[in-house]
């Protein structure tokens, strides 16, 4: 069966460290993979998109990698800050799909001062 | 702010009732998708509308239905509400093939009692 797993439900790190979040998938052929941030009671906010033929994307303190052989994406936040505390969602767009997003459950990141 | 607005923000309904949720999409986006997010879960795709036609549907029963209007705004209707329908309902506007970010509204929190 098809599955998307974000390996940690929660991740606690110290301010200034690098947070690394993992997204694994099985039985999908994603054309794109997207990462979103969601704050409590709010809608998800787009962070980064990576295509199946791309290995890495960066935006400011954010970096995402995409390994279609391992069927895994890693999302990194460097020099983390308490304001980065939120739930981070991984979402796939299947090849040949209508473009709908298939989400993981999310990882709740807490950055302590 | 994403430019996607949803109404109402909160709603309480009784089991068996019907509900209509509304979404005004990002200017210029002709594709609107609806998602259901239960507590502690990632958003689940309900359906997508493209140029006023349903363009894809997730694993939701027919009592979940929708409309898209010529100005690309959209409605989600749920009939015969069940307790398990309690969730955050999210509307997202995007390009039709998922190769760009989706813009989410703040959501409607529906509680069925």
- Helix-residue proportion of chain B: under 10%
Number of strands of chain A: 11
Query: Shape of chain B from CA axes?
Result: globular
Residues in helices of chain A, as a percent range: under 10%
Ends distance of chain B: 32 Å
Count the beta strands of chain B: 11
Largest interface: A-B, 26 and 34 residues
Q: What share of residues are in beta strands of chain B?
A: over 45%
- Counting helices, strands and paired strands, the structural category of chain B is mainly beta
Q: Main sheet of chain A?
A: 6 strands, mixed
Q: Order of SSEs of chain A, N→C?
A: EEEEEEEEEEE
Oligomer: heterodimer
Rg of chain A from C-alpha positions? 13 Å
Q: Which structural class do you get from the secondary structure elements of chain A?
A: mainly beta
- Report low-confidence residues of chain A grouped into runs of 5 or more: none
Figure out the total of helices of chain A: 0
Write down the Rg of chain B.
13 Å
Give the uncertain stretches of chain B in residue-range form: none
Please give a structural write-up.
The complex is a heterodimer of chains A (113) and B (113). Chain A has 113 residues and is mainly beta. Chain A is 0% helix and 59% strand. In chain A, strands 2, 4, 5, 9, 10 and 11 form a 6-stranded mixed beta sheet that branches. In chain A, strands 1-3-8-7-6 form a 5-stranded antiparallel beta sheet, with no helix packed on it. In chain A, strand 4 (30-38) and strand 5 (45-51) form a beta hairpin. Chain A starts with a strand and ends with a strand. The model of chain A has no long low-confidence stretch (mean pLDDT 93). Chain B has 113 residues and is an all-beta fold. In chain B, 0% of the residues lie in helices and 50% in strands. Chain B contains no helices and 11 strands. Chain B has strands at 5-7, 10-13, 19-24, 31-37, 44-50, 53-57, 64-68, 74-78, 87-94, 103-104, 108-112. In chain B, a hairpin with a 2-residue loop joins strand 5 (44-50) and strand 6 (53-57). The radius of gyration of chain B is 13 Å and the shape is globular. The model of chain B has no long low-confidence stretch (mean pLDDT 92). The chains are: A mainly beta (113), B mainly beta (113). At the A-B interface, strand 4, strand 5, strand 9 and strand 10 of A face strand 4, strand 5, strand 9 and strand 10 of B.
């Amino acid at each position: 069966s098809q599955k998307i797993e974000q390996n940690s439900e929660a991740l606690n790190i110290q301010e200034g460290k690098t947070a690394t979040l993992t997204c694994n998938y099985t039985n999908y052929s994603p054309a794109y993979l997207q990462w979103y941030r969601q704050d409590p009671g709010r809608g998800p906010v787009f962070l980064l998109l990576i295509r199946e033929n791309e290995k890495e994307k960066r935006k400011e303190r954010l970096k995402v990698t995409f390994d279609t052989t391992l069927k895994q994406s890693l999302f990194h936040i460097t020099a983390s800050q308490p304001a980065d505390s939120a739930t981070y969602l991984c979402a796939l767009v299947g090849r040949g799909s209508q473009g709908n997003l298939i989400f993981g459950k999310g990882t709740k990141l807490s950055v302590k001062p | 702010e994403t430019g996607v607005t949803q109404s109402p923000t909160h709603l309480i309904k009784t089991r068996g009732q019907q509900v209509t949720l509304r979404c005004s999409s990002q200017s210029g986006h002709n594709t609107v998708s609806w998602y259901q997010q239960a507590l502690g879960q990632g958003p689940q795709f309900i359906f997508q509308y493209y140029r006023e036609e349903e363009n894809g549907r997730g694993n939701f029963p027919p009592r979940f239905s929708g409309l898209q209007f010529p100005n690309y705004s959209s409605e989600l209707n749920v009939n015969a509400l069940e307790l398990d329908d309690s969730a955050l309902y999210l509307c997202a506007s995007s390009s039709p093939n998922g190769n760009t970010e989706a813009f989410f509204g703040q959501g409607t929190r529906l509680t069925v009692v």
